[in-house]
């Protein structure tokens, strides 16, 4: 077994790891990048990019089907599942190639392949071939989709989103467990591509939403198109021929057994920290086994170990992983002179239709930290001009501001162009704008953003004429 000495060891070569490696190198430190799997980020291989390729194909199919609402009648729609998946895989491989090419450009002596495990706060063992002695560490090991053991026992037809993007063809039917971002995005895309889809949600959650009014609109919008069964859990999965028998149970105890080709488990992801020998680091860990860390510096306690990206379970999104990695790598290089890094305003987007976006402080966070001190404005997109023109007039936007100061705090929405409106409003939060300042900005006509102005006008009225939101915060969290 050989021994390597370095100043910084980065465990994991995903988005956070690669960014952390480059930041530590830029800080002038000898840095090793350790990866146990193939190179290529979750986003490029099995996450945001291939999912958007599938969604784009689904949008094309849906536009043909929706054209009759404009008086435009297309011919018979034929979906070539093999062609759809061939494009998904081809373009996905192209995106992965860019990432792999980037890693291949790193010096060979900076890369070690194998599974890393802490032997002490300063030493790693890589498989059975290498010991790494380092002064500082960045843990960027990512996360893995959760599949309960009792489901997995039903065989290979129980899958995660990872397997979807390796399909050669579209199946006839898929059951989806989970009404989070992944479950809803993939469930709706597959439905629009002609797959029979049923989505089961243990509670009433929809993606990342927490505002009860927006949640109500979101549930209705999803159920208008999809077979979404809220407050219904999967209780049994059995192999049956080439498919599965899936038994579900609602809150009344009523059970139903149905046949599907696949069960897609989209009930969450688990940080990959449990096989790292964390018990040998001396770090304090939370009840999930994740090291306790500072969200501004990524530092674990006062140690020379930093944690970034999905591994810390804070915000499992690529932009956040990149920011985490940059902060962690920079502070690993400068340790012990650790400094807070730039944490941007939270922004999360779900690419369903209608799209879902949250930005700034969520309703739940406001209930916890601003109760009795914030106001809420809203707009429905049902009669918003441009939305009706496009036949996309479903959804609601709720906007939040601080009483007394009028400072804009955040928003939650489901509706048209949410990916664009989300950016607009998150920038306003980060810039510290007041509602009055936002209303002074230009609004063209006719655009969906006029709905934002309507919501802001309602918010300004609430700030001036009504008491602060008392926030009898209902339980907006998913059911256990």
TrEMBL record:
GO terms for molecular function: dihydrolipoyl dehydrogenase (NADH) activity; flavin adenine dinucleotide binding; NAD(P)H dehydrogenase (quinone) activity. The keyword tRNA-binding does not apply. The active site is at residue 445. Disulfide bonds join 43-48. Pfam families: Pyr_redox_2 (PF07992), Pyr_redox_dim (PF02852). FAD binds at residues 52, 141-143, 310. NAD(+) binds at residues 178-185, 268. Its EC number is 1.8.1.4. Residues 349-455 form the Pyridine nucleotide-disulphide oxidoreductase dimerisation domain. Binds 1 FAD per subunit. Gene3D superfamilies: 3.30.390.30, FAD/NAD(P)-binding domain (3.50.50.60). Residues 7-322 form the FAD/NAD(P)-binding domain. InterPro entries: FAD/NAD-bd_sf, FAD/NAD-binding_dom, FAD/NAD-linked_Rdtase_dimer_sf, Pyr_nuc-diS_OxRdtase, Pyr_nucl-diS_OxRdtase_dimer. Keywords: FAD, Flavoprotein, NAD, Nucleotide-binding, Oxidoreductase. Its cofactor is FAD. The keyword Transferase does not apply. Belongs to the class-I pyridine nucleotide-disulfide oxidoreductase family. PANTHER family: MERCURIC REDUCTASE, PYRIDINE NUCLEOTIDE-DISULFIDE OXIDOREDUCTASE RCLA-RELATED. This is Dihydrolipoyl dehydrogenase. It comes from Duganella flavida. The lineage of its organism: Bacteria, Pseudomonadati, Pseudomonadota, Betaproteobacteria, Burkholderiales.
């Amino acid at each position: 077994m050989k021994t390597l000495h370095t100043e910084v060891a980065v465990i994991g070569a995903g988005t956070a790891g690669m960014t952390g490696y480059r930041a530590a190198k830029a800080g002038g430190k000898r840095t090793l990048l350790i990866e146990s799997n193939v190179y290529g980020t979750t986003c490029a291989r099995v996450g945001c990019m291939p999912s958007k390729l599938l969604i784009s194909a689904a949008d094309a199919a849906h536009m043909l089907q929706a054209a009759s609402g404009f008086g435009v009648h297309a011919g018979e729609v034929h979906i070539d599942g093999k062609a759809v998946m061939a494009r998904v895989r081809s373009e996905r491989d192209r995106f992965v190639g860019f990432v792999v090419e980037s890693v291949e450009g790193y010096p060979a002596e900076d890369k070690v392949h194998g599974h890393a495990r802490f032997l002490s706060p300063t030493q790693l063992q890589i498989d059975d071939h290498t010991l790494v002695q380092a002064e500082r560490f960045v843990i960027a090991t990512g996360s893995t989709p959760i599949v309960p053991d009792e489901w997995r026992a039903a065989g290979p037809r129980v899958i995660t989103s990872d397997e979807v993007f390796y399909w050669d063809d579209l199946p006839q039917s898929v059951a989806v467990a989970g009404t989070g971002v992944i479950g809803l995005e993939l469930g709706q895309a597959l439905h629009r591509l002609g797959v029979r889809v049923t989505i089961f949600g243990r509670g009433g959650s929809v993606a990342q939403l927490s505002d009860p009014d927006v949640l109500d609109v979101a549930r209705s919008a999803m159920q208008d198109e999809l077979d979404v069964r809220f407050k219904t859990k999967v209780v049994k999965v059995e192999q049956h021929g080439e498919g599965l028998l899936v038994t579900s149970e609602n809150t009344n105890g009523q059970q139903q057994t149905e046949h599907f080709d696949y069960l897609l488990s989209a009930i969450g992801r688990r940080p990959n920290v449990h096989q790292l020998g964390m018990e040998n680091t001396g770090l304090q860990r939370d009840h999930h086994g994740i090291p306790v860390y500072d969200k501004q510096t990524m530092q674990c306690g006062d140690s020379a170990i930093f944690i970034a990206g999905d591994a810390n379970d804070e915000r499992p999104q690529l932009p956040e992983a990149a920011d985490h990695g940059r902060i962690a790598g920079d502070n690993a290089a400068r340790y012990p002179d650790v400094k807070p890094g730039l944490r941007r305003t939270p922004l999360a987007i779900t690419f369903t239709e209608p799209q879902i976006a949250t930005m700034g402080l969520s309703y739940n966070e406001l209930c916890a930290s601003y109760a009795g001190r914030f106001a809420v404005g809203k707009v429905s997109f049902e009669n918003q001009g441009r939305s009706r023109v496009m036949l996309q007039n479903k959804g609601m936007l709720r906007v939040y501001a601080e009483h007394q100061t009028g400072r804009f705090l955040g928003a939650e929405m489901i509706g048209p162009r949410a990916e664009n409106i989300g950016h607009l409003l998150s920038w306003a939060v980060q810039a510290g704008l007041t509602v009055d300042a936002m209303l002074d900005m230009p609004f063209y006509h006719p655009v969906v953003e006029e709905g934002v102005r309507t919501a802001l006008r309602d918010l300004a009225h609430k700030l001036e004429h009504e008491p602060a939101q008392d926030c009898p915060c209902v339980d907006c969290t998913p059911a256990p």
